[in-house]
Design brief:
Helix content is about 35%, strand content about 25%. It is α/β, with parallel strands linked by helices and about 300 residues long. It has a single domain, classed as Ribokinase (UDP-N-acetylmuramoyl-L-alanine:D-glutamate ligase, 3-Layer(aba) Sandwich), CATH 3.40.1190. A hairpin with a 3-residue loop joins strand 7 and strand 8 (about 100). The longest helix has 16 residues, at about 265-280. It is globular. Bound molecules: adenosine-5'-triphosphate (ATP) and 1-O-phosphono-beta-D-fructofuranose. One of its GO terms (cellular component) is cytosol. It is an enzyme of class 2 (transferase).
């Protein structure tokens, strides 16, 4: 079973406004609400691709109830831990450009921290855990590293999609996959990544630190996969960018699903890219039919 874990979920409140004027009343032309947070997005994409998963993490209040309700209606199993404060609302403002304001999120008690460790301890080597997104405001920066250590010791395959110190602290626990975008990768090494060559070079340095697979996602420039067997770049198909929120999560969902379905490295990269791009070309997350339509357009270039 694939498990996703979202420590700091959200409702994503999408607001389209033609021309925002700061300091004035602005009226939206369109609004929508989606359950959000990176792990939850992975679960939602997996469900759309026809695969089951169980969503773990913390949820609270009326906003948490909305997330539970939408996931239940989509048939997505969850084993969330209920917390006292409401789950945050993240504003995704669309004005021709995409502007995001993410909330802080609900605080977690020590007891709630332990409850999550108990749930993760119960996973087996046949399972797969996807840990994704930011940490709740009062949780210590090594929280992901403690979960990664637990997975490493119990041989539970895991993926971490996060950035900064939280990402740095898990690398030596040999995650199955890390997927920084080019900015997050640059931030780790204190450089600005401006070319495919630099993405490959720093991606290789990241791979040397322990992860079995590194995918450096490059937005409209595709992504690079680096592992012990291959270094390959995939382009993106043509399409109109409607929404990049969740594109990275869709790439992770597609790659994981293809990997657990025993597809080879290049097929898994291709499938991940198709999912990421199908989301970028939709208002919400990708649908399976759109993913399948894009697959033939994706070209893989083996770099070594
Ligand atoms: N403009 C675009 N056109 C086509 N595909 C895109 C575009 N932007 C993103 N994608 C697809 O989504 C994948 C992930 O995108 P990106 O590198 O922006 O990840 P990310 O920064 O983690 O995204 P996010 O945090 O917004 O989910 C890309 O590798 C690509 O397949
Ligand atoms: O604040 P975080 O946890 O870094 O990111 C949260 C978030 O921006 O990521 C998802 C898209 O990847 C959205 O659903 C959600 O609002």
């Amino acid at each position: 079973m694939i498990y996703t874990c979202t420590l700091n979920p959200s409702i994503d409140y999408i607001v389209e406004v033609e021309d925002v004027k700061l300091g004035s009343l602005n009226r939206a032309t369109k609004t929508a609400y989606y359950p959000g947070g990176k792990g939850i997005n992975v679960s939602r994409v997996l469900s759309r691709l026809g695969s089951s998963s169980t969503a773990l993490g913390y949820i609270g209040g009326f906003t948490g109830a909305f997330i539970r309700d939408v996931l239940a209606k989509s048939g997505i199993a969850n084993d969330f831990i209920e917390v006292n404060e409401p789950t945050r609302i993240n504003i995704k403002l669309k004005t021709g450009k995409e502007t995001e304001i993410n909330g802080l999120g609900a605080s977690i008690t020590k007891e709630e921290e332990s409850k999550l460790f108990e749930k993760i301890s119960a996973l087996s080597t046949e399972d797969f855990l996807v840990l994704a997104g930011s940490l709740p405001p009062n949780v210590s920066a090594d929280f992901y590293s403690l979960i990664a250590k637990l997975c490493f010791e119990k041989n539970i395959p895991f993926i971490v999609d996060t950035s900064g110190v939280a990402l740095e602290g898990i690398l030596h626990y040999e995650p199955f996959l890390v997927k920084p975008n080019e900015h997050e990768l640059g931030e780790l090494f204190g450089v600005a990544i401006t070319s495919l060559e630099e993405a490959v070079n720093y991606g290789k340095k990241l791979h040397e630190k322990g992860p079995k697979n590194v995918i450096v996602s490059l937005g409209s420039k595709g992504a690079v996969l680096i592992n012990d067997r291959v270094i390959a770049h995939a382009n993106v198909p043509k399409g109109e960018l409607k929404n990049s929120v969740g594109a990275g999560d869709s790439l992770v969902a597609g790659f994981v699903l293809a990997s657990v379905s025993k597809k080879n490295d290049l097929e898994a990269l291709k499938y991940g890219i198709a999912c990421g791009s199908a989301t970028a070309f939709s208002l919400d997350l990708c649908e399976k039919l759109d993913v399948e339509k894009l697959l033939p357009e994706i070209k893989i270039n083996i770099l070594s």
